[in-house]
Structures are given as structure tokens and as C-alpha cells.
Amino acid sequence: MNLHSLSLNHINYQTHIFPAVIVCLSALSCLPVVALSLVDITSFMGLQLIGLLYFSALLSFLSGALWGLALISKKLWPCQLSLLSFLLPWIMIGLKNRLEIEIETLWLLLCMAHLAILLADWLFMKWVYPMWYLASRTITTSVLAISTGVVIYRNIIL
What we know:
This protein has 158 residues and is mainly alpha-helical. The protein has helices at residues 17-38, 41-73, 76-99, 103-124, 131-157.
């Protein structure tokens, strides 16, 4: 089985429902992080760890998708990036107190990892993914990055 046979461009869509559903689910996946950036200070402080865990889970999902396609295509760099992006957030969250890592650093690392996965998608997988998917991922990642910036800013001013 080659990577070309896995291309989402070749799926026979009976309608445009599938891309619309994926785009809607992508948008909905941003809501918890966007909501965290907008809630009051008390809720913000109480929900921040849950937000980090959620953001890490999103990153793990996207890293796993890239990893699978990179393995099939036998490209080493995306495999390494996806593995690092998958493991780093969980290790940093687990060692946060022991290493005395600031929570802003965790958010920044997660945001950078999301952007790195998006960059790898554009550089290595753009011929596998349909354009609507890459556009959706770009918008979703941008919204997550902006929300993360607001979360980091709120942490600094507190």
C-alpha cells in the first residue's frame, strides 16, 4: 500500500457533507481553548490544567495522524517531529512541578508543537491531504495559537 492510495482526495464523496462535517468538528475542537481564554479570572485559574490536558490531547491526535502517514511514506523527519510533539507535552506536564516549569512555558511549547505539526502537514503531506482539509487545519491552528497567546498573556498579568 502506498501513500498515494491513502490520499483523501480520491475518496468518492457522494456530497460535500464529509468535508463540511470535518470543518465543523475542527471548529468545535477549538471551543474549549477559546472559552478558557475568555472566562473570568477565577474560572480561568481553576480550569487551566484541564485546558493544558485538552490542548495536549488535540496535539496527540494530530501528531498521530502525521506519524501514521509519515511511516507509510518512509519520511524520517515528520516521524521524528510527530513523535516529539506527541511525547513532549505529556512529559512536561508530568514533570512541571519537579522541574519548576512555568505554566506559560507549557502553553508556549504546546502552541509551538501545534504550529510545527501544521508546518509538517504543509511541507510533507500537502499532496496527500485535500486543500479544504489543509485550509481547515490552518484556520483551526491559527485560532488555537491566538487563544494560547491570550492564555499566556492572562497568566503573565495575573
